[in-house]
Design brief:
This protein is α/β, with parallel strands linked by helices. It is built from 13 helices and 21 strands. Helices cover about 35% and strands about 25% of the residues. The chain binds iron/sulfur cluster (SF4).
Length: about 450
């Protein structure tokens, strides 16, 4: 690839962690002389930052590589690289599946991409780096748009748990924690650029522990950065949720009392088979304490139905936990075995039909419970921050409460993105509340912010 043709196009799949990593990858490539382009047709280097959590995510990427090959046919100097969890999982098999791939880089090695590309040219063959050093973290520059809600900052990578259904420990490696100084530097850069909200990310963010700070100390320090008005974090694990974390949230009005805490199953028997490392009672202890300390707390969760060995009784326990907690939202999945995970060795003995019916029952229950709880919120007064316009173009501002509830208010002169105001909830449609503005409580001023 000649020097004047260093144009890179990056496509990102999967979670916000990948979105963050892609920013760090772009930044590294910019420093190596690459300029970013918006479409694959303009690029000399096509990078796919991938996800391996579900089979359909991988199939999409394989299909996409096939599509991108047309650019190589048109210009043989175009290079295709696959990064991220799928690259880590499949390694050299990726090149066997798709000959167009020139570069396969695992999750700990993005810093080596420019050097590996040079080797692709000098050696005339595909290059791989799948080494897991267990210490790598990345630091991405803050997003350019200060009004972007929210600025995602990755604070941990990997996971030390071994939930039997999960590929993450094998694709992202062991848990490692970014230094608080580094995180605070990123948060300050966001604030200095006019950003007011950050979301701290990690597969298991509440397990953050650095020699210099616990998670509770870290979120407190982030909330105290000048200019930062809202701090969110995800994903939480009940085993790593000491009371100190809840006390830190309670002590800082900037920290969101929204806990995305996967339960996966309400049955201790299934939790054991999943090797989740906690029982239902541990989970409920966090929920109960959170309710006691955080009056506005809202919960969301992930649930798998039809895990190997799940009986009707186990499933009923999952329905019960949904009723007991009262989630704002639940991401629900039918179990499907992932190669290379321990659960893949268990008999996938719940039939597809039973999984389908259980999933439908779970979704129905969540919808009913939420409709009931949501209706009870009509008439309440909330504080929201405006995040943008309604995507359906109906003349509404789109806002969110600190505990993550979506609210639409009519567009009014004098209001704009970033502003905070009190609203009165008028009605609920699906998961969105419609409200009327009451009073402006804080005006976003790009210059002063
Ligand atoms: S805690 Fe989360 S990321 Fe870690 S192994 Fe379990 S499901 Fe995967």
């Amino acid at each position: 690839m000649s020097a004047q043709k260093k144009r890179v196009y990056v496509e990102t799949y999967g979670c916000q962690m990948n979105v963050y990593d892609s920013r760090a990858i772009r930044d590294g490539l910019a420093r190596a002389g690459y300029s970013e382009v918006e479409t694959p047709a303009e690029a000399d280097l096509l990078l796919l930052n991938t996800c391996a959590v579900r089979d359909n995510a991988e199939q999409r990427v394989l299909g996409r590589i096939g599509e991108l090959q047309q650019y190589q046919y048109a210009r043989p100097e175009v290079r295709i690289g696959v990064l991220g969890c799928m690259a880590q999982r499949l390694g050299e098999k990726l090149v066997e599946k798709r000959k167009a791939v020139d570069l396969v880089v695992g999750t700990d090695n993005y810093g080596r991409i420019p050097e590996l590309l040079e080797k692709v040219e000098s050696e005339g063959r595909a290059q791989f780096d799948l080494a897991v050093d267990g210490t790598t973290t990345y630091q991405a520059p803050p997003e350019v748009d200060p009004l972007n809600n929210s600025h995602f900052i990755s604070i941990t990578r990997g996971c030390d748990y071994r939930c039997t259904f999960c590929i993450v420990p094998y694709t992202r490696g062991p848990l490692r924690h970014k230094a608080p100084t580094q995180i605070l530097e990123e948060v300050r850069a966001v604030a200095e650029g006019g950003g007011v909200e950050v979301t701290l990310l990690g597969q298991n963010v509440t397990a953050y522990r650095h020699a210099e700070a616990s998670f509770a100390q870290l979120i407190s320090a982030v909330a105290e950065v000048d200019g930062i008005r809202r701090v969110r974090f995800l994903t939480s694990h009940p085993t790593d949720f000491p009371a100190a974390t809840l006390h830190a949230i309670a002590a800082h009005p900037e920290i969101s009392p929204w806990l995305h805490m996967p339960i996966q199953s309400g049955s201790d028997r299934v939790l054991r088979r999943m090797k989740r490392g906690h029982r239902l009672s541990d989970y409920m202890a966090v929920v109960d304490l959170a309710r006691e300390l955080l009056p506005d707390v809202a919960f969301s969760t992930d649930i798998i139905v039809g895990f190997p060995g799940e009986t009707e009784e186990d499933f009923e326990a999952t329905l019960r936990v949904m009723r007991d907690v009262g989630y704002d939202s639940a991401f629900t999945f039918k179990y499907s075995p992932r190669p290379d995970t321990p659960a893949d060795r268990l008999a996938d003995d719940v039939s597809e039909e039973v999984k389908r019916v259980r999933l439908a029952r779970l979704l129905d229950l969540q919808e009913c419970l939420w409709a009931e709880r949501g209706r009870a919120m009509v008439g309440q007064e909330w504080k929201i921050a405006i995040e943008g316009t309604d995507q359906k173009g109906r003349g509404f501002w789109r806002g969110r409460t600190l505990n993550n509830r979506k609210v639409l208010i009519p567009e009014r002169p004098g209001l704009g993105i970033g502003d905070e105001l009190r609203v009165k909830v008028l009605r609920l449609e699906g998961t969105t509340f419609f409200a009327e503005p009451l009073s402006l409580t804080w005006k976003y001023d790009r210059v002063a912010a």
